[in-house]
Amino acid sequence: MYAPLSLSLPALSLTALLTGCQTPGGAAEKAGDTGTPAPCTPVLAVLFDLGETLVTEQEDGLFSTIPAAAEALDALEARAVPKGVVTTVPRGWGIEDLRALLVDPALLDRFEVVLMSSEAEADPKPDPAIYTEALGLFAAPPPPGQTLFITEELADIADADPPTEGAQAAGLVGVHVHDAGAGDTGDTGDTGDTGGTTGAVAARTISPAGLADLTGEPWFACLEAE
Predict the structure, then answer these.
(1) Using alpha carbons only, how large is the chain's radius of gyration in Å?
(2) For residue 211, what are the CA distances in angstroms to 64, 67, 117?
(3) DSSP character for 122?
(4) Could you give the angle at the alpha carbon of 195 between the alpha carbons of 174 and 39, nearest 5°?
(5) How far is CA 196 from the centre of its chain?
(6) Is the Cβ–Cβ distance between 99 and 70 less than 8 Å?
(7) Does the pLDDT value for residue 92 go beyond 70?
(8) What are 11-67's pLDDT values in tens digits?
(9) Phi-psi bin for 131: left (phi > 0), alpha (psi -120 to 50), beta?
(10) Of 7, 50, 104, 169, which is least packed with CB atoms within 10 Å of its CB?
(11) What is residue 17's three-state secondary structure?
(12) SS3 of residue 97 by DSSP
């Protein structure tokens, strides 16, 4: 008789199983040699800026959806990640005024939250209160520290490190849509993009084309990832 074969497999934390925050060998990341799973905080919601982040202006004055942004929305919807928009518009505007500017007005229907400055109680971006207000409009408000705010406007993410203005002053995680290869540092500070830091502001960066693979970024599953 052969003795029963016993396999001893490393246990994975529930967070690692749900988010895929694992080593290439399949085991959860460990903190040192203690056997304690490393922190792995997933993104639970995403807020977007609208103009030149999700849509871009055409010659006729209407705004068309940026293809990479549409792919990002598809991927978020596939993962059932709640999404919202925070946008600055003229005073007195309603949702139909905003729809009239879009080549695809139905784009706004893809978001659980659409907060226009004209309807917000808070002042417009980069007032931190408007981001907090937007989070409160979700059916299940997500924690600020697990919510991304994605924009091409660095000033709407933060004004300094530590921030007093922008999404990061409200506790959100800023993601700056920026083409580092363009050689334009006019809106990113004197130092450009270095190791996730844009000028004097610490923020994640992603290229306009890279937005299509937003959910594939290592830090999307684990915000602690580089």
Answers:
(1) 20
(2) 16, 9, 25
(3) S
(4) 65
(5) 14
(6) no
(7) yes
(8) 433 334 334 444 333 334 444 556 778 889 999 999 999 999 999 999 999 999 999
(9) alpha
(10) 7
(11) helix
(12) helix
Q: Which residue has the higher pLDDT, 139 or 225?
A: 139
Tokens representing residue 202 in the block: 């610490």
Whether the link from the prior residue into 4 is cis, omega within 30° of 0, is: no
Tell me the residue type at 143.
P
- Give whole-number Cα distances, 5 to 1, 2, 8, 11, 224, in Å: 12, 8, 10, 18, 38
Rounded to 5 degrees, φ, ψ at 151 are -160, 160
Distance CA 212, CA 10 (A): 34
Distance CA 70, CA 26 (A): 31
Per-residue CA distances from 23 to 30, 53, 221 (Å): 9, 32, 13
Smallest Cα–Cα separation from 132: which of 160, 162, 168, 158?
Answer: 168
